């Protein structure tokens, strides 16, 4: 089922006619919808207060705290969608992978996966493993009403990169060594991660998420030929697994200008674009039948209102011919961003694009 169809056997939900979901379905909208990756988090003083003394991964398992943090940017910025507060490594932690998110570093894995025997660490994910997700989304949908909630997960390649490298990497030499040198092990690893990722997205959708985004944060490290052969099949498996729910599926990566067509081909309804490629050129690369999401450079928000508005107009002008457009940053909100700049940006986009 495509995102253009109402879920079979169900009445349209309260969020169905929202500007965000209309844009995902490439339908006319009252204004260009806005949300920001990492809008729920580090740039907000209320987030730091709510999370004081609580470790990152612990905060992701407390339903009432997850709901509060998810709602904070919706209240403050008047964005058109909420994004579920979590982290891409949460499902890995939930199945027993020994990992932690270290401040200033990121996810660190105690026992990296380097051999076939190491695959035993990756068991199936069950809804019971992440019951706190179901509870949190129940709280959220009750509060959000007509505002859609976006669920998300890390894509198999990005998760594999963390698992193999043991943490963040700039070169991905260990991951690529397996991809090139042991393609069977690589394929089995990504296939297993695709099943885990799909299960995690299904939990979120069944709990009430109105759309889902697959983050392939590090896919930009790949050449198109390697992406098509070694990564696309696993991402396509994830998108296929949730197709029947009828919710929009968004695909996003950083530095993926050369991969935009392939990322759409994997099965997304919406392709996220970082700040490096203008949206009209991105549309040419992706091809027809997809909405686009993006793509203001996050760092512009430090340059003052006049510069932000000028760069925002460039994005909106490039998006004028698109079948569907969701305004977002080209990556996540940076921690030291002034929250008021995001509030002003949201209002500016709404005002400039009002139909």
Give a quick precis of the structure.
With 355 residues, the chain is of the alpha/beta class.
Helix and strand topology:
Elements: H1 19-24, H2 45-50, H3 56-59, H4 63-77, E1 82-83, H5 90-94, E2 99-102, E3 106-109, H6 131-144, E4 149-154, H7 156-165, H8 173-181, H9 183-207, E5 211-215, H10 224-230, H11 232-242, E6 249-252, H12 260-265, E7 270-272, H13 279-286, E8 291-293, H14 305-318, E9 325-326, H15 339-353
Parallel strand pairs: 1-4, 4-5, 5-6, 6-7, 7-8, 8-9
Antiparallel strand pairs: 2-3
Helix pairs in contact: 4-6, 6-9, 7-9, 8-9, 9-11, 14-15
Can you characterise this structure?
By secondary structure, the protein is α/β, with parallel strands linked by helices. Helices cover 44% and strands 9% of the residues. The chain has helices spanning 19-24, 45-50, 56-59, 63-77, 90-94, 131-144, 156-165, 173-181, 183-207, 224-230, 232-242, 260-265, 279-286, 305-318, 339-353; strands at 82-83, 99-102, 106-109, 149-154, 211-215, 249-252, 270-272, 291-293, 325-326. The strands form two sheets. It has a seven-stranded parallel beta sheet. It has a two-stranded antiparallel sheet with strand order 2-3. α12 links the parallel β6 (249-252) and β7. α4 (63-77) packs parallel to α6 (131-144) and α9 (183-207) runs parallel beside α11. It starts with 18 loop residues before the first helix and ends with a helix. Residues 1-11 have low confidence and may be disordered.
């Amino acid at each position: 089922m495509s995102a253009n169809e109402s879920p079979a056997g169900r009445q349209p939900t309260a969020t169905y006619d929202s500007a965000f979901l209309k844009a995902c379905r490439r339908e006319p909208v009252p204004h260009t919808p806005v949300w920001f990756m990492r809008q729920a988090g580090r740039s907000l003083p209320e987030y730091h207060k709510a999370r004081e003394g609580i470790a990152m991964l612990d905060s992701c398992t407390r339903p009432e705290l997850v709901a509060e943090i998810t709602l904070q940017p919706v209240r403050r910025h008047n964005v058109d969608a909420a994004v579920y507060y979590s982290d891409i490594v949460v499902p890995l932690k939930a199945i027993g992978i020994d990992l932690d998110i270290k401040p200033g570093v990121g996810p660190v894995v105690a026992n990296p996966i380097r051999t076939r025997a190491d695959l035993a660490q990756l068991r199936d994910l069950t809804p019971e493993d992440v019951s706190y997700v179901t509870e949190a989304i129940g709280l959220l949908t009750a509060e959000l009403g007509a505002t859609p909630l976006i669920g998300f997960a890390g894509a198999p390649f990005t998760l594999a990169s963390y698992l193999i490298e043991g943490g963040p990497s700039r070169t991905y030499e260990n991951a690529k060594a397996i991809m090139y040198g042991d393609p069977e092990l690589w394929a089995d690893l990504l296939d297993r991660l695709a099943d885990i990722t799909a299960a995690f997205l299904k939990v979120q959708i069944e709990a009430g998420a109105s759309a889902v985004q697959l983050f392939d944060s590090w896919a930009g490290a790949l050449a198109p030929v390697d992406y098509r052969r070694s990564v696309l099949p696993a991402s396509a498996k994830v998108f296929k697994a949730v197709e029947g729910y009828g919710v929009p599926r968004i695909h996003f990566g950083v530095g993926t200008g050369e991969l935009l067509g392939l990322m759409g081909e994997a099965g997304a309804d919406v392709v996220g674009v970082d700040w490096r490629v203008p949206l009209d050129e991105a549309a040419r690369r992706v091809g027809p039948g997809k909405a686009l999401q993006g793509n203001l450079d996050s760092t512009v928000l430090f340059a003052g209102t006049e510069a932000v508005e000028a760069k925002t107009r460039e994005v909106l002008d490039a998006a004028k011919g698109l079948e569907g457009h969701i305004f977002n940053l080209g990556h996540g909100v940076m921690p030291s961003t002034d929250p008021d700049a995001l509030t002003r940006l949201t209002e500016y986009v709404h005002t400039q694009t009002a139909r």
